[in-house]
Queue: 3 jobs
Job 1
Amino acid sequence: MYKRFILLVSILTLSTLSIISIASNRAEFEQWMKQETSHFQEYRDKRDKEFTGFLKNQWKEMQTFQGMVRDKTPKPARIPRAPKKPFTEVEPVKPVTPTPIDKTPVKIIPPTTPEPVIISVPTIKPVPTPVKIIPAPLVKKIKGSKIHLTFYGQALDFYYDPKLKVSLQRPINAKAMSRIWSEMSKADYEGLLKQINAQRKPLILNDWGFALLTNAIAQKVHPGSKNDQSVFTWYLMTKAGYQARIAYDQNYVYLLMPSRQQLFAAPYFTFDKIRYYALSFDGIKQKPGKIFTYDGHYPGAQKRLDMSLSHAFNTGRKQQDRFLNFTYKGKTHRINVGYDKETIAYLKTYPQMDITLYFNSELNQATANPLLKQLKPLVEGKSEEEAVNLILRFVQTAFKYKTDEQQFGIENYLFPEETLHYPYSDCEDRSVFFAWIIHHLLGLQVVGLDYPGHISAAVYFNKNVNGDSVNFNGKRFVITDPTYINANAGMAMPAYKNTKPGVIRVLN
C-alpha cells in the first residue's frame, strides 16, 4: 500500500513538472513567434521605407518604343479555291523507257493504294460541373470596406483596408509617387492579397487573369480615375511578387510589366535587357511617348507575367449559339456551336502575342465538348486522310474570310473561341482552330506553318499520304491548309508551294 502511494505521488509530481515545462515552452514559443513577427514587420517596413526613399530620386526620362509588328507581309485579300479536278490520292507510277543499250523489257508495276488507317476517335469527356465560386475568406481584424464586383459573370466580394485608398496628387512627379507608396504601405494590403489569391484556383486564373482581377478591384476603389487605378494595380502586383513598374508623363500614369512571352503592338522600354510593356486592361492601346520611370525594382518582386492560356478561365458562362454549315462529298452538315460571350470579353483584353501561344491555347470545355460530339460521328469509320479532309472542308467553308485589317483595322490573332464568335476569320485563326480540332478529335500530331504573310498547318499521318509536305523532328507532316478552299491534305496554296515555311510546334 505504501509503495503504491509513493508511486502515485511520483506520477503526480512528474505530471506537474511536465505541465510546468510545457507551459514554459509554450510561453517561450509564443514570445519567439512574437519577436519573429515583429522582426518581419520591421523588415517589411524597412523595405517599404527604403523603396519610398528610392522613388524620390531614381526617376529618369525614357523614350518608349512602339510595339513590334509580327509580319509585315500583306495577307491575301482573297483566297483561292482548289481546282475542281479531284485530288489524286496515289499518283500513278510513270513507265520507264528502256535505254538502247538495255534490251531487257521493263515490267511496269501498277500503283497500289496503301491500306488506309481507320481513325479511332478518342472518347469525348462530358462537360464538367462548373466550379462553385465561394466568397473570399474574411481576414481577421480587417475593419474594411466591402467591394462587390462582377468579374466576367462571376459575382465576387472583397474587403479592403480603407487606408489603401490613396489618390495621386498633382503635379504628377517623383514626389507624388513616393508619397503614394509611403501612404499605401501603412495599410493592411496583405488581407486583400490573400482574398485575391484565394480566387485563383476556382476561377482558373493565369497571371493575366490575376492582373485583370486586381485591376477590376482598383476600378472599384478608384472609380473614374485611371491614374489612381494604375497606381493601385502597380502597388498590389508589386506586393504579389511581380516585376511591376510605374511611369508617368505630364497627364497620365502607365503600368509597365515584363512578360515571359513576347508581346506585339504594345509600347515598351528596356531595362537590363528586359522589355517592360505598357499594359492596358480594356483592350485599348496606350501610346506613351517620353515618360519618366525608375531604374530598379522592389526587393523580392521578380515574377514576369506568364500569358499562356493552357487552361480556360472559369467565367460565369453566357452562351451564344451559332450555326455553321458545310458540304463534304455532296452531303451538307449543320453544326451548332455554343460559345461563351464572357470568355470573348476576357480574351478581347489580351495583348497580341506570338502565334505559338494561340496554337497551344485551350477552349472552355463547355464550348469544346458539344462541338467535338457533333463532329465525332462524321469522322468515325473513316481513314485518317478522309477524316482530315472532312475537317478541312468544315474550317475552309463554314467560316467567311476577311483579313484582320479588313475586319478590325489592325492585326488581331484570334483564339479558337473567338473564331467561333466573330463573323470573319483569316488564315492564322483558321489554322489555330483546325489544329485544335485535329488534336482533340482525331488525336493526330499537327504543327503550324509560318509563311511570309500566311499561316497554315500540317498533319502527321500514320500511313503515307501523297502531296506537299514538310519535315519536322524526323517526321513527314503533310500540308493541310484550312484557308485554301476545297483543298485536301497534301495541297499547298499555289502562292506558297515553293516557299519553305517556319514550323510552329503544337504541344500534344
Job 2
Amino acid sequence: MNNIVAIVGRPNVGKSTFYNRLVGGRDAIVDNVSGVTRDRKYGMTDWNGKRFMAVDTGGFVHGSEDVFEAAIRSQVRLAIEEASAIIFMVDAASGLTDLDEDVADMLRRTRKPVFLAVNKVDNHKRLMDANEFWSLGFEHVFFIASISGSGTGELLDAVAEQISDEPEIKSDLPKIAIIGQPNVGKSSLTNALLGEERNIVTPIAGTTRDPIHSHYNKFGKEFLLIDTAGIRKKAKVHEDLEFYSVMRAIQALDECDVMMLMIDAQSGTMEAQDMTIFRLAMDRHKGIVLLVNKWDLVAKETNTARDFEAKLKEKLSPFSDVPIIFISALEKQRIFKAVDIALEVYERRKTNIKTSVLNDFLEEAVAKYPAPAYRGNLLKVKYATQLSNLHYPSFIFFCNHPKHLGENYKRYLENELRKKFDFSGVPISLFFREK
C-alpha cells in the first residue's frame, strides 16, 4: 500500500477547499505545471493515527471542451493507477453533470476503494437534492461541506481504514532511494552499483514501471537500494510523465531513509519537478544527497563543478546544507563516493545529542549573537533538549517570548547547530516553547 489518497473531480466542486482542510496548517507542496494552468498540491496529513499523502489533482481553466474533458480523464487514470484510495468529489449545488457521469464510469472499473464525496451539502434542501448521486452506484457515499467541515470526519474515518499501518519494507538495513525525473540515469546507476543488468536501460524516458528493491552487500557496505526508475513509457503528453514520476517519488520516499536525488548535468540546473521532489523529501524529513549525473558530458571550460554547485545551492536556499556529488553513472565516476556519502547522511539522521552538550552549544551561540530585543523586552533562549520520539533530529528551545523570536534568529540557531554537529543532508526541526 503506497498511502497516497488522490482527490479527483471536475473543477469548482471544492477539491482544494477539502484538501486545505485535510492538510491543515502544514506547508503544502505546490507543483505549478506551466502550459496547463493547474496547481497540483501534495501534502502530508494524518487521521486516526494513519499518515498519508493527499494529492489535490487541481482543476483546469478555459480551453476547448475536448481538451478540458481529456485532461479530467487523464487525472482520473493517473489516480486509478497510482493512488491507494480515491476521493471522487461532486457538487450538490450544481447537481449531477455529464462529466461527473463520465468520471464515475471510469472509477467503477477500478478495484481501488472509491469514496464519493458530495460537497456543498450545507442545508436541508441540498441534502435532499444530493440523493441523486446515489445513482452513480458507489458503495461509499458521504455528504459533506468542505468549508465548514461537516461530514468530513466520517469520510476520513472510512479513508483511514484503507491506509496501511506498516511500511512496505521491513528491514533494519539503511534504505536508499534513487529518485529523479525520467531518463536522468537512475537505472544506469543501479546497474553500475550492483554490477549487473538489474533493470532494463534504454534511452526512452520512463522504461521502468515499478520501484525496484535491491539488496546491496559489497565492499563492507550493506543497504537496500530502491530504484524508483519512474514510470512506463507514455505516448501521451510529457505532462503525464511528470505527474507519474512525482507519484513514484512519493512512494519511494515513504520507504526510504535517504534520497539520492539525481539531476541531469546537461540541463544546467534543477527544474521545477526536481524542486517539488526535493521539497517533498524535506517535508518528510528524509536524508538528502544530490547527484549531478552525466557530468562527463558537460564542457568543463564553460562550467566548473564549483560554479555549478554554487548555482544549485542558491536554488535550494534556505536549505542548502546538502551534499552535492558530480557523477557519471555510465562511466562509473564517483558512484561509490555517492554511496559513502548517502550512508554518512543515514548515520547523521540518527544523531542523538546529550542535553548537557546541547546546552553548552546554546550558551556559546547566544553569547556570540544574542537574540534581538522586541519592543524593549530582552529575548532569552534559556534551555534546549532533543526530542527522542522522532525518527529525525528535532530540538525544543525554551525561551521567554517564543512568539517574538524572529525567523532570522531561528535560522541562525539552526545554521549554528548544523555547523557544530554536522547535519549536512539532514532536514532538522526546531521548536520554540515558552519557559
Job 3
Amino acid sequence: MQRDDEVPRRPPPRKPNTLSLPSIPSVPAPGRPARPRRPDVSLPPEASAGRRAPDLWPSPDAWEEDARYLQADAALDDPYTVETRDLVAVSSRSLIAATSAHQRALGPLTARHLSTPPPRPLRRTLLLQGLMALVVVVLLLASVRNSATPVAAYASAFQGNAAAHTVVKIVDLVPIQTQIDPTIGYDSPTQYKQYSDASCGAASTSSVLLAWNDPKGRIGQVIDDMIPHLQTIGMVDPVGGFMAVAQKHNFNVVITENITVAQIAKIVTDPGIPVVVGIRDNNGGYYSYFAPGHFLVIVGADANGFKVVDNSTYFVHYFPTATFLQLWDHPRAVIYYPKTFAFHMP
C-alpha cells in the first residue's frame, strides 16, 4: 500500500539505441575451440503479428549481448596468433558482424538478401592469378616469335641486286700508303730513313701490286727491286725502275708516253685497272711540295675529274679535270696487270 507522503518513483530513463558491431563466429579451424553461438532471438512470423515494427536500432540488451560475443571473438581471434590463411575469414566475419543488428531489425527477408558467400582462400586466389599471368606471357612470346621475319628473308630479298650490280674492281682495292708512315712495310728503320722522302713512286707501285694481291707487293720489297733506279733523292730513272719491278714480280707493264685523259678515264672505269701517273707543280701553286715531281694512282673518273690515291701528306682524294691537266707535266702513265689478265689499250 502506497503512503500519501511518498513520491512515486519514475522509471529509469531508457538509454538511447546505438549501433552495435557484433561479430558472427565462423566455422573454427581444426584444433581450435568452437565459438559460443548466440541464441536466435528473432520472433517467428506468427508471433510477431499485431506487434509494432521493430526499431531500426538495437536495444540496450542487444548491445550487451553483442558485446559479450565480441569478447568471445576477440579471445579466439588474437591478432598475434591468427594465421595468414585466416585473415580473409576474420575480415569477412567483422563485415558480417557489423550488419547483424540491421539484419535482426529488418527481419528474416532482409537478412537473407544481405547474406554473402564465403570468401575464397587467399592462397588459392594468388595461385590462380599466377597461373593466368604465366599463360598470358607464354602466349605473347609465342605470337612474337611466330610474327618475326626470318633472318634469311633479308638476305634473299637483296641478294639478287647485290650480285647483279656490285662488281668489285681492282681500282676499289688500291690502299693508301702514306710514305712517311714507318708502319706501311719498310724493311728496316734504316731503309725508312733513307727513302721515305723519295719513295712516292715505290709507294704508288706497291699500292697497285697489293690491289692485285701480289704477296711481294709491300713497299720495302719494291724499293729493293727499284734500286739503282731509285735513289735517296728520288726516281732517277722511272722507266727503268717500273720495268725492273714488273720483271721481278712477274707482271706485265705498259709505260706509255702519249696517253690522253679520255683513255685514262676509260681504263679506270671499264676494266677498272689503276693507272700510275706523275705530276709536278711548276707554277708554285697550292701543291708546292709537288714541284720536284710526285707519283700517285688514278682509281676513278667522272665528268668533272679524277679520283686518286695519294701517298703524300696532302692526302689528295680528287682532282678536278682542269687541276689535273695543270699538274700532269708529261702524258706518261704506268699500267701494271698480271700476265694472266687480258688487257688492251683503248
